[in-house]
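Here comes a specimen:
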Amino acid sequence: MQLSRNALRAGSVTGAALCLVGVALIIVGVAGWQPLGSAPAWLTTLAGVVVVTGIATTVIFSTALARRARR
């Protein structure tokens, strides 16, 4: 199944937005708990998962968009 260029761009932007949400969660953790190791485990786990998911999504959609542009 081929996605349109607009769908690939939207996927890439969504991945970048997920990264920003993950970074915001990390900032909340750092601001609320000193040291960060004392932050709740769910917060640090959620932040890590969101950042990694955002990076992976951005890379996948950006790579597909670049391949599409080369054709």
Summary: The mean pLDDT is 91. The chain has two helices and no strands. Helices lie at 5-32, 41-70. The two ends are 16 Å apart (CA to CA).
